[in-house]
C-alpha cells in the first residue's frame, strides 16, 4: 500500500495532535499538558494548535461522543427521500431545521436500485417513535417528495470514527 | 446511568474547554468536582455509553474525503463480506440495514483520490458492486442527543 502524503491542511505537529487525540483526550486533570509531554512540545503549543483547529472547523467539537445504542436510541432510522432535484436545497434546509434530524445530506441517486437523493438520520427509542417523526417530515414535504423509505440499522458492524493511518 | 451521568452527557457534547485544567472548568459548571467528572467520564467510556471523549475531527477539513457507500450482500456471505470491508482502516463506520442494500459504510480517507482506490479494492475483494453516494450538499450537523 502506498504511503499517503500528509494533507496540506495540517502540518506535522497538527497531524501528531490529531493522531494522539482521535481516540480521545487523556482523562487526567491537565490533559493538554499530558499531550504536550507525550509529543515533546509545550502545553501552550498544544492548546494554540487545538484552538486553531477548532476555529478552522477541522475539530468540529470537543466533548462526549455518545453511543446512541447505549443511550437507549436503539431505533435509528436512516430516512431517505426521493425529492425533485430542483427542490432539494429548499427541502433539505427545511428538514435540517427539525430538532430530531441529526444529519441531512443531498446524495446522488443510484438508479435503478436506489431512487432516493435526500438522507435524514432520525433517532428514536423505538421504531414507532422514528415512524412518527418520519410522518412529520412527510407532512412538511407534502407533494415535494415522490417516495420515501426508512432503513433501520440492525447492527453496528464497525464504529471507529476517523483514523489517520500511516 | 444516573441523573448526574445524563447531565454530563447532555452538557458536554461540545464546548469542552481548551485550558490548563479543562475538567475542573467543566466540572464547576456542572456542580461537580474535577475528580468526580473524570471518574464518571472514565466509567461512561468503559461502559460504552460514550464512544470516546475528546475532539471530533472533520475528515474533509483535514484535507481528506468522506463518502457513504452501500453493498447488496447475499445473506450467506454477510459476515465474510463485513470482515473484508471492515479490514480497511478507512472504513469509519459500518452498519447492517434492512434493505436490499443491506450494508452501509462510511469511507474516510486522507486524500480524495484514495476513496476511489478503497472502493475498487472492496469491489475486487467481494466481487460486489459498491454504490458510492458522496454528499452533494449538507444541511445540518448538530446532533445533540437529549438523554
Overview of the structural elements:
The complex is a heterodimer of chains A (166) and B (147). Chain A is an alpha+beta fold. Chain A folds into two domains: 12-55, Orthogonal Bundle (Arc Repressor Mutant, subunit A); 69-152, Alpha-Beta Plaits (2-Layer Sandwich). Chain A is built from five helices and five strands; from the N terminus they run αααββαββαβ. Chain A has helices at 12-21, 31-39, 43-55, 88-96, 127-141; strands at 59-66, 77-83, 101-106, 118-122, 145-159. In chain A, 34% of the residues are buried. Chain B has two domains: 3-46, no CATH class; 65-132, Alpha-Beta Plaits (2-Layer Sandwich), CATH 3.30.70. Chain B has helices at 3-11, 22-30, 34-46, 78-86, 112-126; strands at 50-57, 65-71, 91-97, 103-109, 131-132, 137-141. In chain B, strands 3-4-2-5 form a four-stranded antiparallel beta sheet. In chain B, α2 (22-30) crosses α3 (34-46). Chain B starts with a helix and ends in a 6-residue tail after the last strand. In chain B, 33% of the residues are buried. At the A-B interface, α2, α3, β1, α4 and β3 of A face α2, α3, β1, α4 and β3 of B.
